[in-house]
Amino acid sequence: MAPAATTNKNTETYDRAKDIKEFDDAKIGVKGLVDSGITTIPRFFLHPPQTLSGLTTPPDPALIPTIDLSGLYNSHLRSTIVGKVAHASRQLGFFQIINHGIEPDILERMIGAIKVFNEQPAEIKARVYRREMSSGFAFFTNVDLFHSKAANWNDAFFVRLGPSLPELDEIPEILRNEVVEWSECTKKLGEVLMELLCEGLRVEKGRLKELSFSEAPMMVGNYYPYCPEPDLTMGVKSHTDPGALTILLPNHIGRLQVKDGLEWLDVEHVPGALVVNIGDILQILSNDEYKSVQHRVLASSSDEPRVSVAVFFHPSEKESLYGPLQELISPEKPALFQQFTYTDYNNRWYTKELDGRSMVNHYRL
Ligand SMILES: O=C(O)CCC(=O)C(=O)O
Ligand SMILES: [Fe+2]
């Protein structure tokens, strides 16, 4: 048979929706596929050539600035820190922080717990495998599995950290203490960062907190297992983050890349550092001063998984209107975005494909 006909036939008979549903119903996640001994990846994980081209080009050396937060309460040092945070947020939308006040053993415990959770027997994880984000704890593969054109080589769990934590028995015991500890540490750090970001915009430092952005964080624990065909899929394809800002703790495996113009920059692992990036909502609130920038994670054939935990800061006041901060609007610099409720924002976000077309453009005037 001519190759063209074979291709055609495959296209006609391939029932993608059925394969995806079967995979999701099996509740084994990507890790379960790996453990079953597959040597090729299922077809719905294959990304199109335009996503895959250039994946193997060596990225430019990382130029993600690392900012030392020690000296935060000395007014001279603080203004230097604010300057660096604001500069990075205006340019790349990404920076790393060291001396952020979270002890190294807390970082290690959090990463360790995510790893141990994901490496439990499949049948134990299947008991908590569910997509309902309305519950306090959800564990599943690919938030946009049913909306996307190609799936990512990643399993993740989601925990609502506020306005209040879920009932503790909703969080699997194997990572319960670590989640509670991480919640406390990142809420405090989130407020510190929000103040610095406000100062960098020259608005009142409590402005983001006042708008309830420190009250409804969402935690996502990411696990990227060994991939037998890492050049054909993505760990997480290029996207921007939804909240005001994200605090990310990665393990040492690397493979996170940030888009700078036409180039992808590797985010180098800095021991003990946290990665901070501006999300779509803060780009809008800052009236385009701060940038919510595309980033992605490459799949890998390393035996050691990439593990990361992201905390996204969302507002708790879901029906309030959000848009460019009034203080930043003037006849010379009119508002560049329309106002929206967080409910509208959230509904749009969860029903779209997670991709580089950020919500920023949706609300742009
Ligand atoms: O695993 C990572 O480092 C990045 C994950 C990410 O971009 C996200 O969860 O939004
Ligand atoms: Fe992200």
From TrEMBL:
Transmembrane segments: none annotated. GO terms for molecular function: dioxygenase activity; metal ion binding. Residues 214-315 form the Fe2OG dioxygenase domain. Keywords: Iron, Metal-binding, Oxidoreductase. InterPro entries: DIOX_N, IPNS-like_FE2OG_OXY, IPNS-like_sf, Oxoglu/Fe-dep_dioxygenase_dom. It comes from the Eukaryota. Pfam families: 2OG-FeII_Oxy, DIOX_N. Its cofactor is Fe cation. The keyword Metal-binding applies. Belongs to the iron/ascorbate-dependent oxidoreductase family. PANTHER family: OS06G0255100 PROTEIN, OXIDOREDUCTASE, 2OG-FE II OXYGENASE FAMILY PROTEIN. This is Fe2OG dioxygenase domain-containing protein.
